[in-house]
Amino acid sequence: MESKKELNALYKYDAKPQFGEILSLGLQHVVAAIVGIVTPGLMIAEVTNLNEANTTLILQTSLVFAGITTLIQLFPIFGRFGARLPVMMGASFAYVPILLAIGAEFGIGAIFGAQLIGGLTVIFVGLTIKKIRFIFPPIVTGTVILSIGFSLFPVAVNYMAGGAGNEGYGSWKSWLVAIITFVIVFYLNNFGRGFLKLSSMLVGMIIGYIVSLFLGMVDFVPIANAGIVQPILPLHFGLEFKAVPIATLVVMYLVDSVQTIGQFTATTFGAMDRQPTDKEISGAIMGSGLANFLGSLFGSVPCATFGQNVGLVVSTKAINKYIFTFASGVLLIAGFLPKIAAILTTIPQSVIGGATISVFATIAMTGLRTVANEGLTPKNTTVVGTSLAFGIGIALSEGSLAGFPAWVTTIFGNSEVILTAIIAVILNLILNKPKPEKILQE
User: Fold this and answer.
1) What is the gyration radius of the CA atoms in the chain, in angstroms?
2) H helices of 75-107, where?
3) Per-residue pLDDT reduced to its tens digit, 226-279
4) Count of the separate structural domains present in the chain
5) Whole-prediction pTM
6) Average pLDDT in the chain
7) Is residue 186 part of a domain?
8) What is the pLDDT of residues 97-139, one digit of tens each?
9) What is the DSSP letter of 226?
10) Average pLDDT over residues 148-170
11) In this structure, is residue 441 part of a structural domain?
12) 7: pLDDT confidence band, cut at 50, 70 and 90?
């Protein structure tokens, strides 16, 4: 009886589960997010020609601010900056194409200068979201969630194949490890019971990691090269304020606010059976803006909600704040101790892919549920189908925007989510004519 009571604590935000339960589920969130947190920093470091020390530093700041941003969302500052909802935050892949373009042309200082302005813009959006939230009803956010899930499918498959561009990509070893990991996660998630079911992803990744060790797929060189302790310093990378990078990144931040609504809606709807309130959405956006403003000063790439972790929350229904507090603590420690960060980065991408593909599927299905609950009327199906057709179709059709300026492709041609969100908002306003008083929640 006591065990059941303790287990139920995992499904309550403020309850106090046993540490063993917090440890297992918290580590699942860490391993689900770690590759996604460090990869954008690695890509930006490469395109801006950072040396090894600065590359390590940008990875550290990415880890530290992933932890800080998550804590802000868990424990809102002044009761306004943060949603008080169970989410993991970290470096966002949605921003990567734009950041690479800015970094290659203008340098890393321009990235963080534009990010600072973008963060302030997002805070303003969060302050006014109650007045404009009617623009983003469930039919729109559900469509955005669907596009998020669809956009993550190729990410998972590339991970399963060993990571695009990596040696051995597409090899039988990568697929063997990925499939073994997937089968274990699938079995425990669907046929496991109790805590094994909740820990399915962690168990699968541990076994997948062990198999990859025997196959010689784990590289321990990063651990040997990493330092023991290294602080992060403000303005190390500098700030440069240039019009084109600022305008481009501000547009991305505005569109990403819709994605934030979608991700937080997926969390509350999928794991808590309700829509998020206006206060929660406002706090989520403002908390993200504050964290990104601070991150620009220390050299952390923009943070957003992590789709794979949203899927993990939805699939386990474990929403307890201590799970995410523990995960944030691990990320903070890893950020200040490069050796730990290096250990986490040794997890082969095929293990990550095998463990997360079903999680990404859960995200897409959450979007589908959100849309279905609004009713598949002719107008709604037009909004959903047309938005996805444009968003996904253009993103998958390389060069389809070649006749436009490069920034058009950067913003609209490299992300399924951005164009889908914009078209869904416009079509819903035209067809359904939503009114503020019918959508807003207190």
Assistant:
1) 21
2) 96-106
3) 777 777 888 888 899 988 788 878 877 877 777 788 788 888 888 888 888 888
4) 1
5) 0.74
6) 83
7) yes
8) 678 778 888 889 999 999 999 999 989 888 887 777 788 788 9
9) S
10) 82
11) no
12) low
Question: String of b and e for 224-241 (b: at least 16 CB within 10 Å)?
Answer: eebeeebebeeeebebbe
Burial 245-264 (b: 16+ CB within 10 A, else e): bbebbbbbbbbbbbbbbbbb
Place 388 in a pLDDT band, splitting at 50, 70 and 90. very high
> Please, which residues have CB within 8 angstroms of residue 407's CB and are 6 or more apart in sequence?
101, 244, 248
Distance (Å, rounded) from C-alpha 261 to C-alpha 179?
A: 33
Q: 182: phi > 0 → left, psi -120 to 50 → alpha, else beta; which?
A: alpha
Cβ atoms of residues 108 and 272 within 8 Å: no
CA distance 35 to 343: 11
**Number of C-beta neighbours around residue 219 at 10 A:** 10
Q: Is residue 84 part of a domain?
A: yes
Contact assessment for residue 367 and residue 270, using Cβ atoms and an 8 Å cutoff:
no
Which tokens is 85 given?
A: 């909802």
Residue 259 placed within a domain:
yes
What residue numbers bound the domain in which 69 lies?
15-433
Q: Where are the alpha helices (DSSP H) in 219-348?
A: 221-225, 243-272, 278-298, 307-316, 321-336, 338-344
